[in-house]
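lol ok so funny story. i was supposed to be doing the assay writeup but got distracted and ended up predicting the structure for this chain instead. priorities right. anyway since i did it might as well share w the group, maybe its usefull for someone
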Amino acid sequence: RICVITLADAHPLLQSGKTIKSINYQISANCSRLQNKVSGKSKRGAQFLTELAPLCRISSSDGEEYTIYSCIRGRLIEVNENILSNPTILQEKPSTEGYIAVVLPKFEESKSITQGLLTQKEYEEVLLKRLNSSS
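and the output, tada:
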């Protein structure tokens, strides 16, 4: 029932030649995802996220900046502070140690959210179509 937010395999940051310069969880002057303090069984204090809520901004050495969005409604359980001191794990192990955040969707919404997700095979087919249409 939890969602681990990671970079997709096709994300530009995971393509060869990109180097991550910095990761910033400071979303605005008043909002830092690092200040998210969760306690207890009911996850008191967790920041509530919408689908379009930014989680962090990642800058690459070529000057590009990418804003990573939640893409899911729910409570922010934790952010991965390890990628701040070691941003290379975001590229080396994007689906394990290089995760960005953990989000807990509302129980009532979790089933409808998972029904709308693509399987790995469906995702690969989408990428293939995208690749074929751009070439």
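The beta strands are 3-5, 20-24, 26-28, 31-32, 48-49, 54-60, 65-69, 74-79, 101-104. DSSP finds four helices and nine strands in the chain.
back to the writeup now i swear
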